[in-house]
Amino acid sequence: MVFLIQQQFGDTDELPGEYSYIPYDYGPFAKKLYDDLDFLEERGVITENRVTMDDKVVYYYSLGQNADEYLNNWSSDEVDRVLDMAEHIKDQFNEVPLPSLLDYVYSEYPEYAENSVL
């Protein structure tokens, strides 16, 4: 989802942070994104909930107990822009099964299908 947000909105300079992706087993991969998720989880800014569905692990992220403190470092306009972007992508793709989502990503961004195991 972060990849899609960057692809659709990254050129606007409204999205804080950028990740460099490489083609990987199941789509675009950015190690720094995973490092940032770990960093934010360790500080209580987000919480991660893992759910096993049909022998696959699905990760859900939500704001943690320290999110307000962290978000106070951003302007309310910046927070609103990022939330709007995330909601747009979420509305489009959140309920899409992973294989269908990857089909979409690979058709729109074929360079990321290079190392796919699918």
What's the helix and strand layout?
Elements: H1 2-9, E1 22-24, E2 27-29, H2 31-42, E3 46-53, E4 56-63, H3 67-71, H4 76-93, H5 98-108
Note down, in words, how this protein is organized.
A hairpin with a 2-residue loop joins strand 1 (22-24) and strand 2 (27-29). Strands 1-2 form a two-stranded antiparallel ribbon. It is an alpha+beta fold and 118 residues long. 46% of the residues lie in helices and 19% in strands. It has one domain (2-109). The mean pLDDT is 87. It has five helices and four strands, in the order H-E-E-H-E-E-H-H-H.
Offer a quick outline of the entry.
The chain has five helices and four strands; from the N terminus they run H-E-E-H-E-E-H-H-H.
Return the average pLDDT rounded to an integer: 87
Label the overall shape: globular
Q: List the strand order in the largest sheet.
A: 1-2
- Total count of domains: 1
Low-confidence stretches: none
Task: Return Rg in Å.
Answer: 15 Å
Query: What is the number of helical segments per DSSP (H or I, 4+ residues)?
Result: 5
β-strand percent reads 15-25%
Proportion of helical residues:
40-55%
